[in-house]
Write a structure and sequence with these properties.
The complex is a heterodimer of chains A (198) and B (304). With 198 residues, chain A is an alpha/beta fold. Helices cover 24% and strands 30% of the residues of chain A. Chain A has a single domain, classed as Rossmann fold. A seven-stranded mixed sheet of chain A has the order 2-1-3-4-12-11-10, sandwiched between helices. Chain A has a three-stranded mixed sheet with strand order 5-6-9. A two-stranded antiparallel sheet of chain A has the order 7-8. The radius of gyration of chain A is 15 Å and the shape is globular. Chain B is α/β, with parallel strands linked by helices. The chains are: A alpha/beta (198), B alpha/beta (304).
Chain lengths: 198, 304
């Protein structure tokens, strides 16, 4: 299986290392032709304005939307912002290009500035394989889900009810960064979604 | 209870070293730009900067004005924070932990304990473990980098020579650090303690660096980067991203040059793209060769 990681800016190497650890070929994607032959794609954390503008300048917006029609797509943090159909008013960066793929409403920088970034052990029922093992979730200037619509469903919430992970068919979004932990279960979960169509 | 003793959905931990390093990981592959006004910050964000460094004077002007260079006015930093949605960094003097406390109080995303400002302490750096906000520090070699990480820095930048537009020192410092790491990887473990002693670095960080084959935190290049080619050069040498100080807003067409440097940092291995983005950029910053600086004018020697 071959999974692409959008490598315009941000923590793409961490995703590639995790994929390689799980025995998958990981490809860094900077140009549209590098999307050919992929079984799925991860949009990493980084600055959503930087990634969005570079994606637009290098003609990646339409090819990414086309890819999403057939293949699995996962956005972590900035990637979640780019995949959303709607960003809550006032929280988007100026002139923020959006792919508008998933039926979710996202608030950017929803927990505050860096001083408010945090780690928490999160219960993610979809990852529990017969026994409960919380997932180490790292939130960095993170966005949150204000709403999920259509067929999208919430996968994980914080104790106060804030939604921080969701799935819609073969599309996945997380406010937090599984690639910064040693825990490969979210990547394995994504690979199962990608396998379904390879 | 989970195997690590914490219950699922248990209490959140803020300001851990992991979240401090984590923000730097999100900045990788990007360009951090010096800005002196909210308007410049907006231009930087629109060009695709992954963060801005808010300050009163860029290093080239600090050289011209002379005198004591201090932390910028918190009012100006707050205006810049309000103008953009990307992370905002600000500089404190080496050893001036009260300037850092003030920057933490106004909520900047990263503090740069910087040799570009006049040092407040000629023997000690800030104990960065005491802070909730993360710090970036400069270095010229591996020992200096690991001392700063030992003090709590969550991000390192090679110093270069700020405010010159001459990339030669940035290259020297990045090659020194990366070369020392390559040699360290070949060293047998019994040599590590003496090596740690010789370079003045904490033993456990020397050992960790050998095991990782890289610094334990993100490493950007800084000091003298003025063109898209300079940025791509530093990326090909092996740093994680670049700071551009005076190089953008001291040039003829800052918005255009800022975009070009962002694109060059992403496509650093693609000479066709580098050629295209380098075209018709207008006047670069004038610059001063590092070799023409008097010894007292060199900033990189500050740091202990």
């Amino acid at each position: 299986m071959k999974i692409g990681v959008l490598a315009l800016q941000g923590a793409f190497i961490e995703h590639m290392k995790m994929l390689q650890r799980l025995g998958v070929t990981a490809v860094d994607v900077r140009l549209p032709e590098q999307l050919d032959g992929l079984d799925g794609l991860i949009i990493p954390g980084g600055e959503s304005t930087s990634i969005g503008k570079l994606a637009r300048t290098y003609g990646l917006m339409e090819p990414l939307r086309t890819l999403a029609q057939e293949k699995a797509l996962w956005g972590t943090c900035a990637g979640m912002i780019l995949m959303a159909k709607e960003i809550s008013s006032g929280s988007a960066g100026k002139d923020q290009p959006l792919l508008g793929i998933m039926d979710i409403v996202v608030e950017r920088n929803a927990f505050g500035r860096q001083v408010d970034s945090f780690e928490v052990d999160l219960d993610v029922p979809a990852l529990n394989n017969g026994y409960v093992k919380p997932f180490p979730a790292v939130f960095i200037r993170a966005p949150r889900l204000l709403g999920v619509k259509g067929t999208a469903k919430v996968l994980a919430t914080l104790p106060d009810g804030t939604a921080v992970a969701a799935q819609q068919g073969k599309w996945l979004v997380t406010s937090f960064h599984p690639e910064l932990t040693g825990d490969g279960r979210f990547h394995a979960y994504f690979l199962k979604l990608a396998e379904g169509n390879s | 209870m989970s195997e690590n003793g914490k219950s699922p959905n248990g209490p959140a931990e803020v300001a851990s070293f992991k979240v401090k390093v984590g923000l730097a990981q999100m900045l990788k592959g990007g360009v951090i730009m010096d800005v002196v006004t909210p308007e410049q910050a907006v231009i930087a964000e629109e060009a695709g900067a992954c963060a801005v460094m808010a300050l009163e004077r860029v290093p080239a002007d600090i050289r011209v004005y002379g005198g004591v260079a201090r932390m910028s006015d918190p009012g100006l930093i707050k205006e810049i924070m309000a103008a953009v949605t990307i992370p905002v960094m600000a500089k404190a003097r080496i050893g001036h932990f009260v300037e850092a406390q003030i920057l933490e109080a106004i909520g900047v995303d990263y503090v740069d304990e910087s040799e570009v400002l006049t040092p407040a302490d000629e023997e000690h750096h800030i104990n960065k473990h005491n802070f909730k906000i993360p710090f970036v520090c400069g270095c010229r070699n591996l020992g200096e980098a690991l001392r700063r990480i030992g003090e709590g820095a969550a991000m390192i930048r090679t110093k270069g020579e700020a405010g010159t537009g001459d990339v030669v020192e940035a290259v020297r410092h990045a090659r020194t650090v990366l070369g020392e790491i390559r040699r360290l990887q070949l060293m047998p473990d019994e040599e590590l303690m003496t090596y740690a002693k010789n370079i003045g670095a904490p033993y456990h960080l020397v050992k960790e660096t050998k095991e990782l084959g890289r610094l334990p935190v993100v490493n950007f290049a800084a000091g003298g980067i003025a063109t898209p080619a300079d940025a791509a050069l530093m990326m090909q040498i092996g740093v994680d991203g670049v700071f551009v100080g005076s190089g953008i807003f001291k040039s003829g067409d800052p918005a255009h040059r800022a975009r070009a440097i962002v694109e060059a940092t992403t496509h650093f291995n693609n000479p066709e793209i580098l050629a295209r983005v380098s075209e018709n950029l207008g006047e670069p910053m004038v610059g001063r060769t590092v070799s023409s600086l008097a010894e007292g004018e060199q900033l990189a020697g500050r740091g202990w």
